[in-house]
From TrEMBL:
PROSITE patterns: HTH_GNTR (PS50949)
Protein keywords: Coiled coil, DNA-binding, Transcription, Transcription regulation
Pfam families in the record: FCD (PF07729), GntR (PF00392)
Coiled coil feature spans: 127-161
Name this polypeptide is given: GntR family transcriptional regulator
Domain (HTH gntR-type) ranges: 32-99
SUPFAM superfamilies according to UniProt: GntR ligand-binding domain-like, Winged helix' DNA-binding domain
Length: 238
């Protein structure tokens, strides 16, 4: 994926510049520390595909975008390295991490385990009002024309559903795993076109077995397609 590497100080599209500006605006004043704000800014830029896999990150540019010093940027990059989103090299500096096919496979294996757990608990506590709300989200998802909007609606769907499980630590882990691959879904234009209406039917029927089977099939399908895309990119840049 070396072909995708570029520095953030290089020219960016008007769309990316607008996204960066929106992210910076959204994180200002919402965190107790400058480091937390900076970390959130970089993470969101990675997840939303503005900072791409293999891209070298310029500390001064990030700092100036937020009006902070280089110190919180360095600290944020170290934390994001622990999360697997960034890799810090002795001579190249910090780059957005590039996932290998086997890493994507592991991430989805963990997602299946954790999300099946959350789904089971959520169904135990679900009610018709929540099913109705989820149905509305799915309708918006199916009607969305832009991939980025569909991904956002999909995130909202599972966030609302899994919150009913009342397991915040497990949900936080799921969101970290989703964040690690979300940038690939957006950047590589992966859209599994897997209708969520079937999932809504299982939720309405309180059918845990069928809902879990649907979720497992859904995640396996996305994982396999994403692994194939990354493997093909590795071959093309070898």
């Amino acid at each position: 994926m070396e072909s995708m590497a570029r520095t953030i100080e290089s020219e960016v599209s008007d769309k990316d510049a607008k996204v960066l500006s929106n992210i910076a605006e959204s994180v200002r004043g919402t965190f107790q520390t400058v480091e937390d704000m900076t970390q959130s800014f970089i993470r969101e830029a990675i997840v939303q595909g503005v900072f791409r896999p293999g891209q070298r990150l310029n500390l001064d540019t990030i700092a100036s975008s937020l009006g902070v010093s280089r110190m919180p940027v360095r600290a944020s990059l170290r934390q994001l390295e622990n999360e697997g989103l960034v890799r810090i090299h002795p001579y190249r500096g910090a780059t957005v991490s590039v996932l290998r096919p086997e890493e994507i496979s592991e991430i989805y294996e963990l997602r299946i385990l954790l999300e099946s757990y959350l789904l089971k608990l959520a169904i135990e506590n679900i009610d018709d009002e929540l099913v109705g709300r989820l149905e509305e989200i799915v309708e918006d998802l199916e009607n969305a024309e832009e991939l980025s909007e569909r991904l956002e609606r999909r995130y909202q769907l599972y966030e609302v559903l899994y919150q009913r499980a009342n397991r915040p630590r497990a949900l936080a882990q799921v969101n970290n795993l989703r964040g690690a691959v979300g940038r690939y879904l957006l950047l590589q234009r992966v859209d599994e076109q897997h209708s969520h209406e079937e999932l809504i039917n299982h939720l309405r029927a309180r059918d845990t077995k069928a809902a879990t089977a649907w979720l497992t099939k859904h995640l396996h399908k996305v994982s396999n397609r994403l692994q194939a895309i990354v493997a093909n990119d590795e071959k093309s840049t070898a």
